[in-house]
Amino acid sequence: MPEFVSFYSKAKRKVQLVGVAVEEASPEDSRKFIEKHGMTWPNFYDRQNTTRAFFGMGVPVTWFIDKTGEVVFKKIGVIKSEDELIELTGKYLGVKI
User: Fold this and answer.
1) Pairing mode of beta strands 43-45, 71-76
2) Does pTM top 0.90 for this prediction?
3) Does the keyword Disulfide bond apply (predicted)?
4) Cα gap 92→38, rounded to integer Å
5) What is the dihedral of CA 20, 5, 12, 23, to 10 degrees?
6) Where does the pLDDT of residue 77 fall: very low under 50, low under 70, confident under 90, or very high at 90 and above?
7) In whole angstroms, what separates CA 66 from the centre of its chain?
8) Residue 31: which residues within 8 A CB-CB, separation 6 or more?
């Protein structure tokens, strides 16, 4: 999570992050995780697993959705660094961080 926190501090005026918890953890456990890791962007808890049904399996997964709402890239697996986030954001969203 530190790579997302650092990325968001630099990119929050250019892109929007949204977190969705789809794990089997309770809403309270999800809230504690968000607070522990300093995730200050909007985060939601999906009680019915609607996002998993719509977007498919793969946790962790990072979706890159352009300003028209189109999914332009899906990264299944761990984002390993802030540099990787910056590179993917530039490549798929055309946003320079």
Assistant:
1) unpaired
2) no
3) yes
4) 26
5) 0
6) confident
7) 14
8) 45
